[in-house]
Task: inverse folding
DNA sequence: AACCCTAAGCTAACACCGTTAGCCAACCGC
DNA sequence: GCGGTTGGCTAACGGTGTTAGCTTAGGGTT
């Protein structure tokens, strides 16, 4: 295992455990057993390190989402993944995608299941917007305490299933 | 005009013009004509200053959204406001709402039009999720360049109008 | 075997961030 | 006139990402 991958490993662990504000070059260095400046012998800068984490998240998503064959199952999988990896999910979705730092195809791989489960690109994007919006508001603590988030998901998914499967049911 | 409001004024201008990474205590101080530490004579800390900006954003949203009488008009207004104030919108939606630092009622005021235009709280939250998700992905540059974001909005809104206005049309 | 070059660690330091401590001048009420 | 509050200042602290420059170990070539 290359040193870079080892650094990404401990950075991911650090991020998932303690959140994005704990993802510090010095903290990563300590966890990997070196001083912060030495990290720069293996990683050009922090942005590229974060891009590596984002790439891992996208491929992990692609694997999980591919198992969901229906719109409802995919929505459940999407929410579930985000709740299992809240800090990574936020790192992945806050800020623009560093596409030039990502291995090619990884973005499409994560998006493919959405396309498979809806009828068109526009429908896939709208569903993505719904799912991302709901989970993003949930993770950011924007809903009032005690809000019935499940009900919002049910309503949203119902609206989409009514539309996207119309006339396509076998 | 109190000094605090003046500080909020220039902070808001700074944020909307140069983005959140330019919203620095030193930069605010310079723009308002004093050194950064002197700001603390008028504002307890940066978090409260940001809460002031968020409160302004919420009341501005409440005023604009209240004019939208249909679901479609509200969605258009929501997207339009966010695109006119992208940095403020992101400041308002990234991170949890500092409810204890906000004037009471301002959160509800901004949310009320969503409730008025849908049938239930769950529908309002689902629609909010859709709108927030789409604009958030758009502002973060997550859609591929050249993506037809308008089409995604049309599809999403269509899904919701089909559901929420069912049986309620006059 | 002697040499050199590269890889990979280190410390010191820089510029910037939010924030605190402590000082000082101006102004206001008595 | 005088004391206290208000509102500015500088200096500084601990934190961030990052760079410069040094050192040491290891491997390859002659």
Result:
């Amino acid at each position: 295992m290359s040193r870079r991958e080892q650094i990404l490993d401990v950075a991911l662990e650090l991020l998932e455990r303690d959140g994005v504000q704990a993802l510090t070059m010095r903290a990563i260095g300590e966890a990997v057993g070196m001083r912060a400046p030495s990290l720069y012998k293996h990683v050009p800068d922090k942005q590229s390190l974060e891009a590596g984490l984002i790439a891992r998240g996208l491929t992990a998503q692609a694997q999980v989402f591919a198992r969901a064959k229906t719109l409802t199952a995919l929505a459940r999988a999407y929410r579930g993944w985000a709740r299992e990896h809240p800090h990574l999910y936020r790192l992945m979705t806050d800020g623009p995608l560093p596409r030039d730092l990502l291995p090619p195809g990884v973005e499409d791989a994560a998006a493919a299941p959405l396309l498979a489960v809806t009828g068109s690109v526009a429908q896939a994007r709208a569903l993505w917007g719904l799912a991302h919006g709901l989970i993003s508001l949930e993770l950011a603590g924007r809903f009032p305490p005690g809000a019935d988030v499940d009900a919002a998901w049910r309503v949203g998914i119902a609206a989409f299933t009514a539309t996207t499967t119309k006339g396509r049911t076998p």
Summary: Residues 3, 34-35, 37-38, 41-42 of chain A lie near DNA strand C (CB under 10 Å from a C1'). The two ends of chain A are 48 Å apart (CA to CA). Chain A has two domains: 1-43, 57-164.
